[in-house]
Automatic annotation (TrEMBL):
UniProt keyword DNA-binding, yes or no: no
Protein name: Acyl-coenzyme A thioesterase THEM4
Enzyme Commission designation: 3.1.2.2
Family of this protein: Belongs to the THEM4/THEM5 thioesterase family.
Length: 206
């Protein structure tokens, strides 16, 4: 039996790379928050962070090997820049399926995602919606690559508040897949999206 709210994105594990990535997200947000107004000694910070990066680079597998890994099994939902618990650029948005065939997730965006003062960058909203529409297609049936993405920004999208992101496949006509989605804040739609996806799968690294 399908659970009532099936998970469509990987649940972050409180260990391994997920745990380190969660810490990296904190560092990114804290650096932006602190800025040069902070009392922290930033050149010491830079040395410490570079030492961490040196260590990681030294122990990382070859890119080709890692790419194969990323596209195997559950890996497909672990590395993307929207939901991926292994990707420090991902807020991350956690998506689940709804009984009506659409999908939904909730996210709070902080300073690293700022565009206009106090509000989310429009390109970040586009990123969230492109990905959510793509996952909505996977959930509903045929999926593909984004050919067109049309956005309407109705109201500024607030930082530091719960945002609900939704996606729903509306039609499939041959290879053409049409999908819609929204971002809402406080129960009001702030961004809406319409996407045209073309049924095409690029080969996975192997
Ligand atoms: C069971 C639940 C499991 C849930 C699992 C959860 C997660 C899923 C797992 C993995 C998730 C991973 C990712 C999914 C999420 C999000 C992904 C984000 C999406 C992207 O980030 S993706 C990158 C950006 N995207 C591109 O990088 C595309 C570049 N582009 C191309 O690669 C080609 O351009 C392509 C392929 C689009 C088409 O090329 P093509 O050669 O295959 O087809 P062709 O050109 O013949 O077009 C066929 C018919 O579409 C019409 N058509 C085409 N383009 C059109 C347009 N723009 N406007 C209007 N009509 C258009 C033609 O007019 C023709 O129409 P007609 O047949 O009527 O003549």
């Amino acid at each position: 039996m399908t659970p009532e709210r099936p998970e469509l994105t990987a649940t972050p594990r409180n260990k391994g790379v997920d745990e380190a990535v969660a810490a990296a997200r904190r560092v990114i947000a804290a650096l932006l928050h602190a800025g040069d107004r902070s009392a922290a000694e930033m050149s010491t910070m830079a040395d410490r962070l570079n030492a961490v990066a040196d260590h990681l680079e030294e122990h990382a597998p070859a890119v080709e090997e890692r790419m194969i890994d990323m596209w195997r099994g559950e890996g497909v939902t672990r590395h993307d820049p929207v939901t991926g618990p292994e990707n420090a650029l991902a807020p991350p948005l956690h998506l689940h399926g709804r009984q009506d065939g659409s999908i939904e997730g909730v996210v709070v965006l902080g300073m690293p995602y700022q565009g206009p003062p106090g509000y989310v960058h429009g390109g970040v909203s586009a990123l969230l919606l492109d990905h959510t529409l793509g996952v909505a297609n996977h959930w509903a049936g045929p999926s593909g690559m984004t050919a067109e993405l049309t956005l309407r920004y109705h109201r500024p999208t607030p930082l530091f508040e719960s945002l609900t992101v939704t996606g729903r496949q509306v039609s499939v006509d041959g290879r053409k897949i049409r999908t819609v989605g929204t971002i809402s804040a406080g129960g009001e739609v702030v961004v809406s999206a319409e996407g045209l996806f073309i049924d095409k799968q690029l080969p996975r690294p192997r």
